[in-house]
Amino acid sequence: MTRIEWEEGGQQRSALWRSESGWPAPKKVVLADDTMAADTAYRLALDGTALLWRGDFQNARQLVQALARRIDHKGARAKRGKTGAKAGKAAPTPTEGFHRHRLAQLQRARTLAMLLIPFDADYTIPLRRAPDVRDACGEAWGPGSEASVASLRELLGLIGAHEWRRKGVHIAALDDRIHPWYGVFSPVRGEYVDLVAQAPLPPHAKLAFDIGAGTGVLGAVLARRGLQRVVATDMDERALGCARDNLARLGLLEQVEIVQADLFPEGQADLVVCNPPWLPGKPSSAIEYAIYDPDSRMLRGFLGGLKAHLAPQGEGWLIVSDLAEHLGLRTREQLLKWIADAGLHLAGRHDVQPTHGKAQDADDPLHAARSREVTSLWRLRVELQ
Question: What pLDDT, on the 0 to 100 scale, is given for residue 83?
Fold first, then answer.
C-alpha cells in the first residue's frame, strides 16, 4: 500500500492511497472546494494535478459530471475535425478503431480520477452532505485502519457495486438472484447463462468442473440441472468469497465445491465448462480481467488442458463471443487451430445473439462489430485416435 502526500495549512500531510486500478498516487495535489470553477478543475486534471476535495460532497459529484461533459465535448469536436480533415483517407480498420476507443476510455478515466475524496479510518467521509459509505467501502477494501484517500470516481463504483450486491441480479435460468461482489463481474449478459442452462448434457454426466467461477452463477445452473457434484475454481479471492456466498444463499454449497486453482482442479469430469474473458488484451483495472484475456492465456490454457481433464465420453463447453473476430483481434481459423492442436473436435455449437443495450446503440464507437456479435457455446470432445 502506497501513500499520497500533500501540503495543507502550512504542514506536510499524508494518507493511505487506494486505487483498484493500480494507478500510482498523484505527485501533484492541490486542495479544491466549492469555489473552484469547472474549467479550472478541468485544466488541472488534464495536467495530471489531483484535486483533494474539501467542499460539499454533492458539489464534488456535480463537478465530476461537469468534467465528464468537457471530456466528451472535446472528444466529439476532435472526431468532427478528423472526419472533415481526412475525408479522402481510408477509414480506420475495426482493430484500429477498437484500440483508439480503449485509449480514449483510459484517458477519460484517468482525468475523472483526479478528483479525490478523503476518508477517516472507519471510512466516514469528513465532508458536508457526505453519504454513509462505510458498508460499501468495507465490502471492497476490508476493515479500515487509518485515514485514506481515493478518487471520487472509484468511490462511486464502490457505491454502485454495493447496491448490486444488496439487490442482486435476477437470473432467469435459476429463477433466483445472484449477488455480485465489488470487483467480480456481474452476470448481466444473461445469454451466456441461458446457453449453459439449455445445452444438452453429456449422457450420464454426474461431475462437472466450472473453470473461472466468478459469482458462481454457472456452477449454480449446473447444480440445478442435476449434476450430482460441481467443482468451481477461481484464482481471485473476491470471486471465491462471492461464489461461496451466492451458493450458500441458493442452498447449493453441499453440491458445489469452491476451490482456489489456476484453471483446472485435480482429476477428470464428465463436463468441463469455461467462460473465459472474450477479448484478448491487457486489462487496465481488476474488474477488466473478466473482459480482457492477456495473450488469450485463459482461453488457450483451457483448451490445452481440457483433454487431460475430460472423463471418457465427456464434453468441454467453451462459452465465448465472436466480438474479438469482428474487431480483428482474433480469427476464427486461429480458434479452430487451437482446438485441433489440443486434440479436440467440435461435437456441436449453440449460438445466440446478444440483447444488451450496446448491441442496439448506433452511437457506440464499436457498434459495427457489436451489431454482428454472436455468443456461442462450443461443445468439445476428445478427438478419437
Answer: 52
